[in-house]
Design goal:
Elements (H helix, E strand, L loop, with lengths): L6 E4 L22 H6 L10 E10 L5 E9 L22 E4 L18 E4 L5 H11 L11 H4 L5 E4 L6 E4 L20 H12 L33 E2 L3 H9 L20 E2 L9 E2 L33 E7 L2 E8 L18
Parallel strand pairs: 3-8, 9-10
Antiparallel strand pairs: 1-12, 2-3, 2-5, 4-5, 6-7, 11-12
């Protein structure tokens, strides 16, 4: 879920300008976000997930824990549990260590992280989210499945059966970009559903729906309202905005070295769906008639740490709330529908 700085949105509303994101003036970074969220007509929702993992997290109590971050549902969920790579689980995540521990923030004030952690290399896919739904979604508790996943052309999951016996499958066919749905980032995921996915991972991919409410986040059956905060001892989590910015823009060369774009480049990536293996390109500016490509498509446009689609494709969510509204989360990276004029707002400095 894959899982920043560009913009934010209500947990029930996705925008094209949302994986985690960025702004221009250092002090005004968050003031840009509303224009992306509300400009234009109501777009097709695009919610991405990435995962993050923290290896050595020190909490206020001084107690250490292991933690992973999921990128957008984006690269946008943050997770951290080494054991999750075991084949004993239905969902495995390719986690990438984010080095340069103790780096400084960039000029906009974001990106400083004082501990070791990992991020999922790609956004969370429809196929991975289907495993989650089939494990705990027989009654669709707290709407972890949205009907838009089935009805919208850029959804990728269908629900069958009746309450108490629902089953789920990846959609047949291809999305508007001509890509099979299985490896496309999962879409139409609310913040609270993403947090439940993370709790499911934290709890060893349990088949008990009650385990969705506790773990990395205490949710108490909430589906809206203020975002939950990360619990001590959390393993899989949604990435914070600082974790996402570091994974996308820091070069690992020294504490203050950041690129302007999360493609390990200081030049704005070109808009390109047809040749994703070209260097420094991204999936944006294609409008509502198009869609995301499969995760890992942009092989020569990775971040310094080797994360795919940190720019464009699908927007990624973080666990960081907007400073003016605790019910809105900061989103990042832009999506396939982010316009050419808006896309530069996802670069550094914010």
């Amino acid at each position: 879920m894959s899982a920043a700085v560009d913009s934010y949105r209500d947990e029930m509303e996705a925008t094209y300008a949302v994986d985690f994101t960025r702004n221009r003036e250092p002090i005004k970074a968050r003031k840009r976000f509303p224009e992306y969220r509300r400009s234009g007509g109501a777009p097709t929702r695009v919610n991405g997930l990435h995962c993050r993992r923290n290896k050595r997290w020190t909490w206020g109590s001084g107690r250490g824990a292991r933690l992973q971050n999921l990128r957008a549902f984006a690269g946008a969920l943050a997770l951290l549990v080494a054991s999750m790579a075991s084949s004993a689980f239905a969902v495995t995540l390719d986690m990438v260590s984010i080095g340069n521990v103790g780096n400084a923030a960039h000029s906009g004030g974001l990106g400083a992280v004082s501990y070791a952690y990992s991020m999922s290399r790609t956004e969370t896919t429809n196929a991975q989210y289907v495993e989650f739904l089939n494990a705990v979604g027989a009654s669709n508790p707290n709407n972890i499945y949205s009907p838009l996943m089935g009805s919208d052309a850029n959804g990728g999951i269908v629900q069958s059966g009746s309450p108490g016996s629902y089953t789920y499958a990846v959609k047949a066919g291809t999305n508007p970009a001509g890509v099979s749905y299985a490896n496309v980032p999962v879409n139409f995921v609310t913040w609270f559903s993403a947090a439940r996915f993370v709790n499911w991972l934290h709890n060893g991919q349990s088949t008990n729906p009650a385990d969705l409410e506790n773990g990395s986040y205490t949710l108490a059956n909430a589906v809206s309202g203020p975002l939950a905060t990360r619990n001590p001892g959390a393993t899989y989590v949604l990435p914070s905005i600082d974790e996402w910015v570091k994974a996308g823009f820091n070069t690992g060369m020294n504490s203050t070295d950041y690129t302007n774009w999360a493609t390990n480049n200081n030049v704005m990536p070109a808009s390109n769906q047809g040749s994703p293996t070209t260097a420094n390109v991204a999936n944006y500016n294609f409008g509502p008639g198009s869609g995301p490509l499969a995760v890992g498509s942009y092989t020569n446009s990775q971040s310094f740490y080797g994360l795919y689609e940190m720019m464009g494709n699908i927007a990624e969510m973080t666990e960081t709330p907007n400073s003016g509204n605790s019910s809105q989360w900061i989103a990042t990276s832009g999506s396939f529908a982010t316009t050419l004029g808006k896309f530069p707002n996802f670069s550094l400095p914010f």
